[in-house]
Amino acid sequence: MNESYQNKRFRRSGSDRYLAGVCGGIAEFLNIDSTIVRLAFVVLTALGFSGVFVYILAWLIMPAENEKRSLLEQIIRNFQGKPSEN
C-alpha cells in the first residue's frame, strides 16, 4: 500500500471548515473536494435522511486534527473524573 495512505487519520479539518470541520475532514481523508461532501449532507437532509444527525455524530466522534481525543471521549473522561488530555 501507499505509505501516505497508511498514515492518514480520520480527523476534523482545522482549515477547511464552515461549522466543525467534519465535511472538510471527510474530504481530506477521501481525497475529494469538500464541496461534494457538503452537497451529500445537504441531499441526505433534503431527502428525509438525518444528515444533520450524522453530522453531529461525526463531530462528536472525529477528533480535531490537532487533538488526540474526540469530543465525545473528552466528555466521557470528564464524566468519569479522569483528566482530559488533548
Total strand segments: 0
Estimate the helix proportion, in percent.
Answer: 40-55%
Secondary structure tally, helices: 5
Largest sheet: none
Radius of gyration: 14 Å
The assigned structural class equals mainly alpha
Main location: membrane
InterPro entries: Phageshock_PspC_N (IPR007168), PspC (IPR052027)
Protein name: Phage shock protein PspC (Stress-responsive transcriptional regulator)
Organism: Nocardiopsis sinuspersici
Can you put this structure into words, describing what you see?
With 86 residues, the protein is mostly helical. The chain has one domain (3-80). The protein contains 5 helices and no strands. The chain has helices at residues 3-6, 22-30, 34-46, 51-61, 71-80. The radius of gyration is 14 Å and the shape is flat. The termini are far apart. The mean pLDDT is 84.
Quick structural summary:
It is found in: Cell membrane. InterPro entries: Phageshock_PspC_N (IPR007168), PspC (IPR052027). This protein has 86 residues and is mainly alpha-helical.
Keywords:
86 residues, mainly alpha
Please give the structural blueprint.
Layout: H1 3-6, H2 22-30, H3 34-46, H4 51-61, H5 71-80
Helix pairs in contact: 2-3, 3-4
